[in-house]
Amino acid sequence: APVETPADIDPSWVVFADDTGLGAALAARVTAAGARCRVVRRGNAFTAEGDVVTLRAGELDDWHRFFATVAEDAPPQHLVYLWPLDQRPGLHPSDSLMGTDALLHLTHAVAKAMSVAKLRLDVVTRGAQPAGRSMGATAVAQAPAIGLFRVVLGEHPHFACRAIDLNGSLAEARRLM
Prior knowledge:
By secondary structure, this protein is α/β, with parallel strands linked by helices.
C-alpha cells in the first residue's frame, strides 16, 4: 500500500527508537515520504553509521556530540522521543531516574546546539495517561517522562511540544506520522 503522508511533512527528523519496533516503523514511513530521518538507539558506546546513531543515554557528552553534528548537517525540525515506551516495571530496577536522565540530556543538548531553532518535540508513552470509561492499568514507569516533559514545555518556549499517549493499536506509526 502507498505511504499516506501529510503534504507539510518536516524535511528532517530524529527518531529516538524504542525496542518494540515502533521507532523503526516510523522511521521507514518518514524516509518513504521523502524526508531525512536519523534513528538514535541506546547503547554502550557512541557510534554513528550513516543516519543510525547509538549513544549512551546517561552520558551528556554523547548527546552534545550527536546534536553538534546534526546541527551542522540538515538540522532536524522534528524529534520523536519513543524511549519511554521501553520503561516497564522491573525492566531497570536499579534506575532510580526511570529514564528521565535521557530526556533531560536531550533537551539540554538541543538547547545548546540549536538554541534558536524552532523544533517539534513529541514525547511518546503508552498507557501513561489513560482516559475514557474503560481505563486500563496505568503504565506508572512511564509517568516520570510526562512530568519532566511538562517542565520542558515551560522552559523551552521555542519547542513545539506534544505528549502523545498511545493505546497499543497496530496503526501507531501511521498515526505518529
